[in-house]
Design a protein that fits this description.
The complex is a heterodimer. Helix content of chain A is 45%, strand content 13%. Chain A is built from 19 helices and 19 strands. In chain A, a hairpin with a 2-residue loop joins strand 11 and strand 12. Chain B has one domain. Helix content of chain B is 45%, strand content 7%. In chain B, a hairpin with a 2-residue loop joins strand 1 (5-8) and strand 2. Chain B is elongated, with a radius of gyration of 22 Å. Chain B starts with a strand and ends with a helix. The chains are: A alpha/beta, B mainly alpha. Chains A and B meet through helix 1, helix 2, helix 3, helix 4 and helix 7 of A and helix 1, helix 2, helix 3 and helix 4 of B.
Chain lengths: 559, 119
């Protein structure tokens, strides 16, 4: 989303009604455009005292009693700050170069505006700002109205857009980070406690224990359950390596169960056959943001001596399963705050959720080197704490989390509709072409319909937070290369199941999990973030469907 | 939080009464796919094509609201009416048209205001 930084002159035009009615309405619409989701709107903090002084003087000159003038200006400023976010002028920016400018206030505004990540314009009537060396635009209100309706300048498309997220939450992020710098409790500070309390309440779990990463959250959980050498943990081979890595790290053996083709989650129907006397836990992964079949998995675990179930919810925090939040669906749930996650930080972080008091206590102790009291180490632990700064960042991001989830789901729904529609249209054309002049169908299936397969929409009893939007494509390498040439980034989650990875291949034959093996050859993820626009999605889908159809035809001709 | 609402004649009505800090308030609504009118969906699709050709921005809130540039500009302008009205209410008797002032005049006014303050 674009950023608009308001110049004093424009705000004064509105307050003092110094423009014709239609222009006043335009400025008022620009002022309120953040509420409508049209732009992030800002007032640089050095501008606030200028507004106060000039408006105050104007009202007093018009005969208003000084106290009343001050009160009116205060109300106007409060109204302004309900609409525009204050933009920081950092102390470290007030350097020699800045101070040498003829107009310090203007220079401060340019410097503050330059800190914003997205496309940014200063809304001004005189365009006298020295913006040399920046990408800032200077626009009059009437130009800004047009500019906001234009598509963002052609820029490399982001696979995950953390810059817009940062602009959206800049004041909260700055405040949170500053708060930590101020109190100085960098380890297990008040932000850690606040985050744990808020996340526990969000999921409904009794306890939340933050950890240094999602990987550490899984490792601590296994350690708290006492899983070690000789034990087996049932899991999926189609996951990020951390899931399996931690099992091996505690000395246990991962036992791989194949996945469902639709959700790419562990196939619950195949779990029971892999349970042995050594099985000590089941660790399903809620892949791409959608919970696994947790009821079925919990039921199997219950039938086999109440085996603990650890949901690896690194991608699914915020998703729901039968009315309950992911991370609160089994004995333990673990998530990650890696920056690309639906709820992320700006570094590593993770959390463990459980409603078992003893397990929670064990996790808390293991997180701090097994320490039960200062310098008393009753168990083996790790240095696995999430720091206060990262908790502050996640707390800021938590403010927009529900909105982000809704937008991710809307983006996914649009992908589904656009790809289906575009594929159908292309298939109709291909089928007509195949029939040829004598109207005899050649029998070859339309290339596009065969080449792209959507993963089914989540079942009605669960939601996905769409950490990824993944689909199956044939000829993936060629498709990725062509999409890259078209400016569309893609990723593969994941190109190789764990039981084919060199470090883990000895644990299970690849043929034992054929669905995982086949999925790894075709799965591909498209750009996914809450700020993806319809126009961007249209461009992605056009490139995907055209590219995949062309690739298929080229491959057929070569063979 | 999630609340249940009924959409009727272009308006959303919350089934649970809520007191909101902000009015108007932007919300995200989940519309069941089966409730969508296909004709509108096609209109949206055409609008998407058109906007893509023009490199333009699209408002997907309602396909039927895809209008000409002039109508869009007028709609945008009218969205400012509540804000302008709120400011005029705060101004009270001070709400009146004043002559245009340049940025240079505003800077001069600031200088005078600071002189008043520190003299």
């Amino acid at each position: 989303m674009k950023n608009l930084v308001f110049d004093v002159n424009v705000v004064l035009d509105l307050w003092l009604e110094r423009q014709p009615e239609d222009r006043l309405l335009d400025i008022a619409a620009l002022v309120s455009s953040r509420q409508r989701g049209d732009a992030f709107t800002w007032i640089a903090s050095p501008s606030l005292h200028v507004l106060q002084s000039v408006a105050n003087r104007q009202f007093k000159r018009e005969g208003m009693e000084p106290t009343q003038a001050k009160k009116t200006v205060k109300q106007l400023l409060l109204n302004l700050l309900d609409n525009l976010q204050p933009l920081s002028a950092f102390g470290f920016d007030q350097d020699r170069t800045l101070l040498l400018h003829d107009d310090l206030e203007d220079a401060q505004i340019v410097k503050a505006a330059s800190a914003l990540q997205g496309e940014t314009a200063i809304l001004t009537n005189d365009k006298g700002y020295d913006t040399a060396g920046t990408s800032l635009l200077q626009l009059s209100p009437s130009e800004a109205v047009v500019w906001l309706r234009e598509q963002a300048a052609e820029a490399p498309m982001a696979f995950i857009d953390l810059k817009t997220q940062q602009d959206a939450l800049r004041p909260q992020l700055e405040q949170g980070i500053h708060r930590v710098l101020h109190h100085g409790q960098y380890i297990l500070g008040p932000e850690v406690t606040e985050l744990e309390q808020r996340l526990a309440a969000y999921t409904g779990a009794q306890h939340c224990i933050t950890a240094a990463s999602g990987t550490d959250a899984l490792l601590i959980s296994l350690m708290a359950l006492g899983i070690g050498p000789g034990d087996e943990v049932i899991t999926t081979p189609f996951t990020f390596v951390a899931t399996v890595e931690v099992i091996v790290l505690v000395g246990a053996t991962p036992v791989f169960v194949d996945i469902e083709p639709g959700t790419c989650n562990i196939n619950a129907a195949l779990i029971e056959a892999k349970i042995s006397d050594n099985t000590k836990a089941i660790m399903p992964v809620s892949l791409y943001g959608q919970p696994a079949d947790m009821d079925e998995i919990n039921a199997i675990a219950a039938r086999h001596g109440n085996l603990p179930v650890i949901e690896d919810a690194a991608q699914s925090f915020g998703a729901e399963y039968k009315g309950h939040k992911s991370c609160n669906l089994s004995t333990i749930g673990c998530t990650s705050f890696f920056p690309s996650k639906p709820l992320g930080g700006y570094g590593d972080g993770g959390a463990i959720f459980t409603s078992d008091d003893a397990l929670a206590q064990a996790c808390r102790e293991i997180r701090v080197h097994g320490q039960s009291a200062r310098y008393i180490h009753g168990r083996i632990g790790i240095g696995g704490r999430m720091d206060s700064l990262q908790c502050a960042v996640v707390l800021a991001n938590l403010e927009r989390f529900e909105q982000d989830i809704a937008q991710r789901q809307a983006v996914a729904r649009r992908y589904h509709a656009l790809i289906e529609r575009k594929t159908e249209a292309k298939t109709r054309v291909e089928t007509q072409e195949e029939r040829g002049p004598d109207q005899v169908f050649s029998g070859r299936k339309a290339a596009t319909a065969e080449a792209i397969t959507l993963l089914p929409w989540p079942a009605p009893d669960r939601t996905s937070v769409f950490a990824q939007y993944s689909l199956r494509v044939q000829h993936r390498d060629a498709v990725q290369a062509k999409l890259k040439a078209a400016g569309v980034p893609t990723a593969v989650h994941y190109p190789m199941p764990m039981n084919q990875q060199p470090a883990y291949a000895h644990l299970c034959c690849p043929e034992c999990t054929p669905v995982a093996a086949a999925t790894a050859e075709q799965i591909m993820s498209l750009p996914m973030h809450p700020h993806l626009t319809e126009v961007e999605q249209r461009r992605i889908v056009d490139a995907l469907v055209d590219t995949e159809g062309t690739t298929r035809l080229e491959t057929d001709e070569e063979s | 939080m999630q609340v249940e609402a009924i959409y009727r004649q272009g308006r959303l009505e919350f089934l649970t009464p809520l007191r909101l800090k902000q009015d108007p308030l932007r919300v995200v609504v989940e519309v069941p796919d089966e409730a969508l009118d296909e004709a509108l969906d096609e209109a949206l699709d055409e609008a998407l094509d058109e906007a893509l050709d023009k490199g333009g921005r699209i408002d997907t809130a309602s396909a039927s609201s895809m209008t000409s540039d002039a109508e869009d500009a007028e709609a945008f302008r009218q969205a400012g009416a509540p804000t302008l009205s709120a400011i005029r209410q705060l101004l009270g008797p001070l709400s009146r048209a004043r002559p245009v002032a340049s940025p240079a005049e505003d800077k001069a006014a600031l200088t005078e205001a600071l002189a008043d303050k520190y003299s």
